[in-house]
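Exercise 7. Given the components listed, write out the predicted structure of the assembled complex. Treat all entries as one system.
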Amino acid sequence: MANSDSSTNPSLAYDDDPSRRDVILIGAGAFAAIGGAVALWPLIDQMNPDASTLSLASIDVDLAPIDEGQAITVMWRGKPIFIRHRTAKEVEEAKDVKLDDLVDPLARNANLPDDAPATDANRAAADKEPWLVMIGICTHLGCIPKGQAIGDYKGEYGGWFCPCHGSQYDTSGRIRKGPAPENMYIPPYAFTSDTKIKIG
Amino acid sequence: MAHESTYKPSTGIERWLDSRLPIPRLMNDQFMVFPTPRNLNYWWTFGAILTFMLGVQIVTGIVLAMHYQPTTEGAFESVERIMRDVNWGWLLRYAHAVGASMFFLAAFVHTFRGLYYGSYKAPREILWMLGVLILFLMIATAFMGYSLVWGQMSFWAVTVITNLFSSLDSVVPGLGTTLVQWIWGGFSVGEPTLNRLFALHYLFPFVIAGVVILHIWALHIPGSNNPTGVDVKTPSDTLPFHPYYTIKDGFAVVVFCIVFGVLLFYAPNWLGHTDNYIPANPLQTPPHIVPEWYFLPFYAILRAIPDKLFGVIGLMGAIIVLFFIPWLDTSRIRSVSYRPIFKWFFWLFVICCLALGYLGSQAPEGWYLFFGRVFTIYYFAFFLIIMPVVGLIERPKRLPGSITESVLAKHGGAA
Ligand code: HEM
Ligand code: FES
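Answer.
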């Protein structure tokens, strides 16, 4: 053939080497697919917590006014934090529980390693046993358990009772009965003085 | 039935349009002369009722959105302002809220109609699956709409339902939590959550409208099923859609509107929960969280299953299983009227759904929980065991030779 240059002779675009066409097709297709996936990411990620939400990081709480047997609820990251000044009897009950009797054997304490066992010592404030600080959200479907106010029904284990589907927590905030799978979570916090804590 | 077009443009404008965008031809072929079985009963009017209700929801919704504020501070108050200050606001909001109930009522009737007359069987599988998809989108839409009021029930329903996804933590640790925070746009249900629920509540009805068009398209390929389940065989089996079914559907819409009107004007809050007139309080869970009535059967299934992850799977499965009915039912006969054994199971299934609805409104304890479990098992057994097995062993009654024959036998006359 006189002129075999396909760029000047369109009829030669249909040359008889199919593999060359395939390379271009697959290449173009792959390029479009990857481009599409990359463009999708900002559209998905925009829904994640934004910078201002992430920066609402920590709060300070003064524990001095909370007498033994009392509890208060504060807000942190839009979640209720239960702070309970437990009585000696409540601490004793929590300590007497055998780990084998627990539904969830893990402490769920953000201040300890993930695999720390759910002993009362691992749940309560370090070296300040009467204090229990935890996220007051039922680990079943997120309701707020009853048990903070004096007159509340606290369930069979004397801790908290979730009205939604009947989960019962002990005085260490550990799940003992009902559909919730995990103990209530302990948020990251530390004592900044003898009577003050910083959560977050 | 896909049929030859009979449209003849009669005016100059129609001829001009016909070679450019032939909408008059489409309307004529699909909604005027469209051959429709002559024996359709009133259960077939719910499609028109549903289309009407989608229109009501979209129109009332758009005007509500002109006054509604999707902020945690302003939402509840803006709804109260709609009720008290906005001209006709009480009517528009009650029409939208009661309208959602009526919409679901019609959708459930329409779905049971399809189930009874075997309208999901070949060649209508895709038609049926699009219907299930619409039901699913309706559930999502109504759930998001209910959250917008930002009362106690709204807030806690969003909290509990979005938390369902955290059950994935037991499959891949951390996956559920990540997903839930992505849905919330924060660490709890809050302003970002409300904003996106509003954006999606506005969007979804239009997606539904799109799927409705596909649904009707899929319907108009084989044409309507009918109470005998026997295929259309001759032209004497059918009537033109207009005026026969435009009038019948129109009459049904009017009767439906009377019921709608009675609820709207005399008992607008009867189906709602009073707790939703208390502003959302993230620190206090109401003593009983109950969803709107149309979600109760699903809620009962969720609570009947003691495990968190399997509860969620049961809840989703209750809808997803519907997609597979065309292949789960092994019977060659469409209409349950000609299936002497399956008939009993079908009516038991209707009772099962009503019972689950009742149980969903009660605390899951004692006998309530026991029966919740019994009916949950029946719900799934109906589809997964009874449908395939009964279809194989049952001896159906004799079918009429044609639609015309069945109509004439009933009325004892001649064609
Ligand atoms: C598939 C159709 C729709 C359904 C099933 C539906 C359902 C609902 C429901 C159940 C509520 C709560 C009612 C209450 O208790 O007050 C609601 C509220 C609302 N919907 Fe819709 N809706 C639909 C379409 C729309 C559309 C198209 C819009 C347009 C933006 C809209 C805007 C609103 C607004 C602003 C509210 C909050 C005000 C209120 O509570 O009345 N909806 N919707
Ligand atoms: S949310 Fe607490 S038991 Fe379900």
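Discussion: The pocket of protoporphyrin IX containing FE (ligand 1) is lined by residues B 54, 57-58, 61-62, 64-65, 68, 79, 93, 96-97, 100, 103, 138, 141-142, 145-146, 148-149, 201-202, 205, 208, 272 (CB under 6 Å). The mean pLDDT of chain A is 89.
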